[in-house]
Amino acid sequence: MANKIIGILGCGWLGFDLALQLKKQAYQVRGTSRTDEKLLQLSEKGIHAFKIDLQEDKIYGDVQGFLEGLDVLVIDIPPGLRQNPESDFAFRIQLFMRFVQAYEINKVLFISSTSVFEDLEELPTYDEHALPNATSNNGKKIIAAEQVVQEMAHQSTIIRPCGLIGGDRHPVKMLAGRKGIKNPEAPINLVTRDHVNAIIIKVIAGTLDAPVIHAVSEPHISREAYYQNAAQEFGLEAPIFEKDANSVGKKITTVFPLGE
Questions:
Q1: How far apart are CA 83 and CA 164, in angstroms?
Q2: CA quadruple 53, 161, 156, 31: dihedral positive or negative?
Q3: What ranges do the domains of the chain cover?
Q4: Alpha helical stretches, state H, 54-181
Q5: For residues 99 and 93, what is the distance between their CA atoms, to the nearest angstrom?
Q6: Which of 17, 65, 148, 185 is most buried (CB neighbours < 10 A)?
Q7: 5-168+191-218 maps to which CATH number?
Q8: In whole angstroms, what is the distance from residue 112 CA to residue 148 CA?
Q9: Contact, 7 vs 30, CB < 8 A?
Q10: Is 246 helix (H, G, I), strand (E, B) or coil?
Q11: For residues 84 and 256, which has the higher predicted lDDT (pLDDT)?
């Protein structure tokens, strides 16, 4: 099992940590980045690094060297829709999946997002059986990318992490001291990086097998209660929430024991 060759397309905050954990478990690991600094960091950790960039017109980099002989591919690249809302994320994934098919990679894990689900006043609950229903530009494009992977991969697992936290990364740092924050009663949907990577590693090892998995680890208390508690823990000024309007949101759950 540990002799498997794992490729991680996108070694950012989550993917780099995943690469290190897989390396510790004696997997052969290949990782990609668009920056020379991250490529150097990967190489220094014994990870075979490739500079690959998915653009609208073509894929730049040594795709063959990265994909050839892979047992499992993890796709963990940001859609880039905040900087470029018109970007066709699904098309870029489709371009890459053509190479994945050509090199006959058996298993593809796609790191998606819970933004495929709509926030509503009813505060609906979505588990893995729920159909994606987002109406936002970002949500619809991620739904389309998921469908591309599901249609083109021999075997696929879609992993939908909630908001990622861990180490020094926490959204309360951006909310501290702010006033008029909306949706105080909406439930929190957050997950630690360690939790997400534990799920990914179980899927790679074959001990967790499902077409879709939600990754959530934090309790579903209200946004107001959670962030006020978190501000106190971090020694920050508590945010003040706006209570004149109804809260909109959602609750992300999972049917898998590891998922929550």
A1: 20
A2: positive
A3: 5-168+191-218
A4: 63-67, 89-102, 137-152, 172-175
A5: 10
A6: 148
A7: 3.40.50.720
A8: 12
A9: yes
A10: coil
A11: 256
Residues whose CB is less than 8 angstroms from the CB of residue 151 and which lie 6 or more positions away in sequence, other chains included: none
d(CA 225, CA 131): 29
Which one, of 110, 106, 38, 34, lies nearest residue 67 by Cα?
Answer: 106
b/e per residue 53-70 (b: at least 16 CB within 10 A): ebeeeeeeeebeebbbeb
Q: Is the pLDDT of residue 217 over 90?
A: yes
* Token digits of residue 191: 């997950």
Residues 6+ apart with CB under 8 A from 220: 187, 188, 189, 251, 253
pLDDT at 1 exceeding the cut of 60 = no
Q: Determine the Cα–Cα distance for residues 164 and 167; give it in Å rounded to an integer.
A: 10
Is 56 in contact with 84 (CB distance < 8 Å)?
A: no
Provide the residue type at 111 as one letter. Answer: I
Token duo for residue 26: 């004696």
Within 8 A by CB and 6+ apart from 57, the residues are none
Per-residue pLDDT of 45-99, as tens digits, reads 999 999 999 988 899 999 999 999 999 999 999 887 667 777 889 999 999 999 9
List 32's β-bridge partners, or say none.
Answer: 50
How many other C-beta atoms lie within 10 A of the C-beta of residue 243? 11
Tens of pLDDT, residue by residue over 4-22, are 999 999 999 999 999 999 9
3-state secondary structure at position 23: helix
Q: Express the helix, strand and coil content of the chain in percent, nearest 5 each.
A: 35, 20, 45
Does 2 have pLDDT greater than 70? Answer: no
244: helix, strand or coil: coil
